[in-house]
């Protein structure tokens, strides 16, 4: 195994800045083959990722974490994407139902530390079921989402999953995203048209006003210090380990050290 740090990705990330999402999708499929999956929370950016996978005929599975307290509209969106785009969507779930969790631990999401614990159990821990199955995970983070995502790199190491996160939409601004959705009639979560700029669990997500930040509706009752669930490594504090271990030949392919593959 070889150590791949975030620092070693700096040059490649810089070279990817002028690549299109489609080029990055194809690079990912060529580089990782069947050891590649996508992650979607069934929000509009995730729907675009799903549409591109289908349109480009990449045959990449999509992982969805059902926390057990998702909006019905989110589950319906998942089902439509699977059926109409011909996608294989893998649904992961936490060990405990929300009722079982509440009976054992109380209502966790009413304070900041409890929210972090709840999100970790219901969003992060279910991902352990696929740890080791994939070397790379395609996400839908965009810099225009703001906050900690304002400087989101195309490639980011994910120590908890020991995988590379790939964000092909990182450079896509809001207008091109909405234009793509309109042009291709992309299936999107209907909650977006009902005032929800971002969509998570039904316990902790509300609509936002036009004058508010996009993520103002996430954990609104806890204030601005609780804005992320922890499932995306680039949302975490800088203290998070910034390296993963992958086979040497795969690291060589990622960094282009022993191949002539160009996108």
Automatic annotation (TrEMBL):
Keyword check for Iron-sulfur, yes or no. Answer: yes
One Pfam family cited in the UniProt record for this chain: PAPS_reduct
Residue ranges of the Phosphoadenosine phosphosulphate reductase domain?
A: 43-207
What is the catalytic activity of this protein?
[thioredoxin]-disulfide + sulfite + AMP + 2 H(+) = adenosine 5'-phosphosulfate + [thioredoxin]-dithiol
One of its GO biological process terms is: sulfate assimilation, phosphoadenylyl sulfate reduction by phosphoadenylyl-sulfate reductase (thioredoxin)
Which residues act catalytically here?
229
Where in or outside the cell is it found? Cytoplasm
The principal localisation class reads cytoplasm
Q: Which family does the record assign? A: Belongs to the PAPS reductase family. CysH subfamily.
Q: What does this protein do?
A: Catalyzes the formation of sulfite from adenosine 5'-phosphosulfate (APS) using thioredoxin as an electron donor.
The record, for PANTHER family, names: PHOSPHOADENOSINE PHOSPHOSULFATE REDUCTASE
Protein's recorded name = Adenosine 5'-phosphosulfate reductase
Q: Which organism is it from?
A: Caulifigura coniformis
List the taxonomic lineage.
Bacteria, Pseudomonadati, Planctomycetota, Planctomycetia, Planctomycetales
């Amino acid at each position: 195994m070889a150590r791949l740090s975030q620092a070693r990705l700096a040059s490649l990330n810089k070279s990817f800045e002028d690549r299109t999402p489609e080029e990055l999708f194809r690079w990912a499929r060529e580089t990782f083959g069947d050891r590649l999956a996508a992650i979607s929370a069934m929000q509009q950016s995730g729907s675009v990722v799903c549409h591109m996978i289908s349109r480009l005929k990449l045959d990449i599975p999509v992982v969805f974490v059902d926390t057990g307290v998702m909006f019905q509209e989110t589950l319906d969106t998942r089902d439509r994407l699977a059926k109409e785009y011909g996608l294989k969507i893998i649904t992961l779930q936490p060990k405990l139902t929300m009722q079982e969790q509440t009976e054992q631990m109380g209502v966790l999401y009413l304070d900041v530390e409890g929210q972090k614990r709840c999100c970790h159990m219901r969003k992060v821990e279910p991902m352990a079921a696929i740890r080791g199955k994939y070397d790379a995970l395609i996400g839908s983070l965009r810099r225009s989402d703001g906050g900690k995502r304002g400087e989101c790199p195309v490639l980011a190491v994910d120590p908890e999953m020991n995988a590379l996160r790939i964000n092909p939409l990182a450079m896509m601004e809001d207008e091109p995203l909405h234009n793509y959705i309109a042009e291709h009639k992309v299936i999107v979560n209907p909650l977006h048209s009902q005032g929800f700029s971002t969509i998570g669990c039904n316990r902790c997500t509300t609509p936002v006003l036009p004058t508010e930040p996009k993520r103002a509706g996430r954990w609104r009752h806890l204030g601005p210090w609780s804005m992320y669930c922890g499932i995306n490594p680039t949302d975490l504090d800088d203290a998070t380990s910034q390296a993963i271990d992958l086979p040497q030949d795969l690291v060589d392919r990622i960094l282009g050290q022993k191949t002539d593959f160009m996108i």
